[in-house]
Every structure is written in structure tokens, then in C-alpha cells.
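fold-stage: in
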Amino acid sequence: MWDLNDEIIEEILARLPAKSLVRFNLVCKQWRYLISDPNFVRKHLNHVLVDESNNHHKLIVHSSPHFYSIDYHCEESLDSSTSTKRDFPLQSTNGLYFLGSCNGLLLLGFYDKTYLYNALVLWNPSFTDYNLLPESSFISTSGSVRLLGFGYDSSTKDYKVVRVITNSRYGKPMRDVEQKVEIYTLKTNSWKTIQGGIPFGNVSIEAVQGTLVNGSIYWIVTNADFVDKEEFDNLILAFDLIDEKFRSMGVPRYDDGESVWGSLVEVRGCLGLYQTLYQSPDVMIWILMEDENRNKCWTKLMKIPKDFGMYSRPAFFMKNDEVLLSIMSDECRKENKKLVVYNPRNMTFHNLPACGISDWWEETIYVETLVSPNGVGG
């Protein structure tokens, strides 16, 4: 049993950054046992998730062969000392891409010219642990991944990866291909197949990576019944991590009824969609809200001028309403990428040099936690 002083110490430790707790593992055996205890890991995670300061959120960038985390929300982020190199535990990082982020765990996949994403890795950048997920025999023999997502099932307190595999490449409607839906659970470290596949045979998949919001994973898809016409219609495909079922929902629409084509993003706990058309001077952002009758509807949240480049992607919406943007210039080269914070209240931009990192292809947001990719705590 812990005495009162030990309980106070535990409460103090549970509010500290994960990187500090990783170092404190060396202080004494008692602290090492405490910090690795699944109940403490969950307590620390809960404190991280309710923290209003954003201080636990980090931006991680992949500048092959290295990964770097950046404290983008601090003024000190202009100082190269706030960029921390993260040692990836596998030797090769070529063709490795971010596919999901949840509670401090990152899902990464090795991508090749056959679009397989068969090799998947769970990794917590706060320490060196990783988990190389089992492969799929279906992919190895004939398939390619069409949808992929990662998230947390609060009912079972388990992390799940869902993927839809087909026996053909992109472009064909799901009704015209053989498909298989597989779910990986961290507790079992294995894949299972759910029957039926995607119940919407008229959709054509456009993007592999899903967007996690409040226990569901979302993808933009195209209504394949429209592909041979001048107009096309878009839908959002959603997968509930608890009941493990798919459903569909509508996208925002213009005044003339035409559906908006864009990319999905999480906006402070809500589903958002952003559109960054080449010919448009602004990035338009919609958010899915509930009205007074608890009906969900799309609302325009803001528009962001493309003052820094034509290819602007919202990377994170901060709790102070500022938006972290990942921007690539018109040349679309990795050395031309930059980070910018946009303040919608006064419509100003704040350029954030990437802390001495010269070039990178992609980035994502994660929170620093003690959750293990091998199933301890969380």
C-alpha cells in the first residue's frame, strides 16, 4: 500500500511530461514500477487529454532517414533546441509514411509501387518501443490496401487498425472487386476478418488514410454511379471502432447543391473538411456541428488566405483558435515546405522555421504519452 506521501508523489508524476517520466525510470525501482504500471499509464494519459495548454502536443516530421519532434506551440520553437531527434527503432525508413495517430501511438506503413502497405508499425516516439504488426496473406498474394485507419475502442480499452483490402488497384467501384475487411487489435496482436465488407458498393476509394475523430474513422469517397458523367458526387465513409460497422454521410454542399471536394481533418474534437483548390486564393474549412435539434450539419468555419503558398494543409487546430499550417510552394518539392501559424482573429501569419530541419516530406501531430505499442496501459 502507498502511504499519503506516495499518493501525492504519484499525482505529481502523473502531471509531468512523458519525456521527464522516461528519464525518471532511472531514479529508483519504486518509481520505475510505478511509471510502467498500466493504471498509472492510463492516469497520465487522462491528464494529457484534458490539458488545455496544448503543451503535450508535438509535431513530428519525417526527414528521411530521421524523425524530429517540434514544440510548435511555443515561442521558443524558433530556437533549434526545441527540435528533438527521435530515433526510429527500425533500420530502414525508406518508403515509410504516417498513417494514423492516437494517444501517443503512431501507425506507420511501408509504401511501395504496388500500393501494398503490408508492413505496418506502431511506434511511440517518446521512447524506443515499437510493434511490427503481423502481415496479411491476402495482401501478399493478390491484394492492395484501399482504406486504412487507426484508433481507440473505449468500450474494450483497446487500440485497433482497420483496413480494407481488394484484389485490384484504385479506380474501380467496390461492387466490382473482391474485398476483405480486416481489424487488428493490440491486445490480441492479431488480425480478424469481419464479414460483408463495405456495404456501399457504389463508392470508389480516393484516399487510403483515414481521419480519426471521437471513436470513428472517416474517409472521403466518390459515388461511382457518377464517374462517367461530367458531374461527380462525394460521400464520407465512416467506421465505428466500437460496433465495427461502416456507415455513410454527406459532405458540405455549395449553394447550387454541388458537393464539396476536399480532405478531412480533425478540428478540436469535431470532423472537419478543408478545400485547397489551385485556382482559389483561400483554403476553405468546414466543420460538422450539431444544431439546436441535435441534427448534424456542415458549417463554414473559416477561410485562410494562401499567402505563403498554393498547397496549404491544416496540420492542427489549437485550442486558442490558431491553426498550424503545413505549406508547400508551387514547385512541390520537399525542400520548399514550411510551417506557419495562422491567427484567424487578426488574420495574421507567424512563420515557424523548422528548427534546423532542411527538408521533409510529411508531418503529423501526436501527444507525448507513456502508452506502449505493445499493449501496456492506455
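fold-stage: in (second)
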Amino acid sequence: MIRRRTPPPPAPMTALALSLVLCLLQLAAHVHAGGTYSHTIPYGKEECMLIRVPKDQVHIVSASFDCLDTKIATDPIRVALYNASEKKIWSSDYGDAEGSFHERGTGKHWLCLENGLTYEQKKKEAGETVPPRNKVTRTIGFSLRVKKSATGAVAEALKAGAGGVENVEDTTQRLMELVEDLNDNFEDLEDHMTYMKMREGVHRTLHEETFSKVVLWNILEIIAVVVVTFGQVLNVWWILSKRRNSYY
């Protein structure tokens, strides 16, 4: 009697981990909130935006910024993120023209954009002065996203159904962290392309305004040349007619 060997059934924990990864990838791709904005801030001001993060589960608050004014010094610019306890958890350095962050947390957060509010005080303490050319209004473009942390959801699901298999849990946790990092990098690249489009729009508007002024100036020059030429013709005609009358 010949017995046929049947392939061993797939490990249930491996199938569970793969299904969890796929489901959470779909969840992380669709359940999030965010947007891209540009804001103009006068010098000596700091303006903050409230970010409402759910309290029941850890979420990822990610953002990036870029100064859209390319011909203005970025020394007084600083961007900071504060948590629900109003504690600063991330901040850029003075003068950074662009930057990004990815922080995990729950509850309310504040994203603050500063244009020289504490920069001038810091300079005074160091015995320096801020040149007048730096005391200008600046436009900052920034993107903001709030999404669920897939790594936290994976850990909870594996603890509930894995029966304490640490190898699968650690591997899946690491895999989800890599996926989140890759997704964040793609979002930063997308934000950078958006800022380039914003900057292109600002430059296009400036170019159109300059072109309109040049065209208007050329039209005024042509009108002035025509008027002067017509006046010279009338002057010559008047001189010739006066000489002709003097002969008689």
C-alpha cells in the first residue's frame, strides 16, 4: 500500500501575521487626515494651529515645511510641535528653510510657525542686532498629516491572537516600522514637489507682474516718442510757413 505524503499545512501564525500586515496597510493608507497649506506671517509673530489627535489610540503626527520666499533670509524662521501638555517635542533650528518630523502621540497638539518672535530677543541677549532687511513678512508652506500607528495596532492584535509567539511579533513589528518609515519618506517627497509647485506659482505671478509693467512702460515710451515726433513735425512746419510768409 502506497501512502502519499501531503504537504504540511501553513503555519497559522505566519498566515495571521501576513493577513494583519495587509489589513493594516489598507487601514493606514485610507484612515488619515491631512492637507497642504501656505501661510503668510508678519515679522515678530508666532501663529499656531491646533491638531486634534484621537485619545484612544496612538497616532502618527507628521509634517514638513518649506519657506517659499527664496530671496529672503530664513534666519528668523522656526517651526515647533507641542503636545497636549504644551511641552515642545520637536523644533527646527533658526534659519532652516525646510524640514520634517514624525512624532507619535495622543490628544491635542499644536504646530507653531514663528517669524522672529524669540529670534530678536535671542540676538539682543548675544549683543547683536537684527538687520532691517530681515524684518519682513514671510510665507511658509507646510503639510500636515495625522494617521493611525500601524505598529501599535499590530502589537495589540498579535498579543490578542498569537499566544505569546515573540518571534512573529518582533518580525511583524519591525516590518511595520519599515513600512511606516518608507511611507513617511514618500510623503515628504510628495510635499517637496508640492512646495516646488507653490514656489513656481509665486515666481509665475511675479514674472507676469514684471512683464505687464515692462509692456506698459514700452507703450508709454512709444506714446511719448510719437508725441515728441508729432511736436517736432509741427515745429518744423511752423518755422517753414513763417519763413515763407516773410518773403511776401
